[in-house]
Amino acid sequence: MLYFAYASNLEPQQMRRRCPGHSVVGLAELKDHRLSFPLTSHDWGGGVASLGVAHGETVWGVVYAVTEEDMASLDRYEHFVGPGDQHNLYDRETVSVQLVRADDGSFPRRLLPWTFIARPANPSPPSRRYLDAILIGARHHRLPDEYVARLAAMPVTN
Hints:
Number of strands: 7
Order of helices and strands: EHEEHEEEEHH
Strand order of the largest sheet: 1-3-2-5-6
CATH architecture: Roll
Number of helices: 4
Radius of gyration: 14 Å
CATH superfamily: Gamma-glutamyl cyclotransferase-like
Helix content: 10-25%
Structural class: alpha+beta
């Protein structure tokens, strides 16, 4: 199955710990969306990322191929209990992304991977530690320089 990561799961060591069976499919863009921080995480010490609809904007990320066990691990980490469950912190949904650089030897194309969308609760800027995890992953996966610069300029809580 396919998974679109756009925040801290871009960070390669974190992704290896959470999803040891994953492989990188490639760089992808999600058009008409923006990165937001609508949910506060005590673990990260600030806001954690989600996707919001925003005409004309783009969120860059990476599509991973993950095993069913990896997806179950992500579900637990993102506090996704099940579709429509009132206890979800994040909902798991499919998004339509354009694979623009295939790292797996395939060709650029449109994909419908799973991703996680936060349920808003106590919005907050991200912590320095959380934003740094996103930036490490963004640079590692060679997300566009302009996008990485915009991420780096985001305000943080500490």
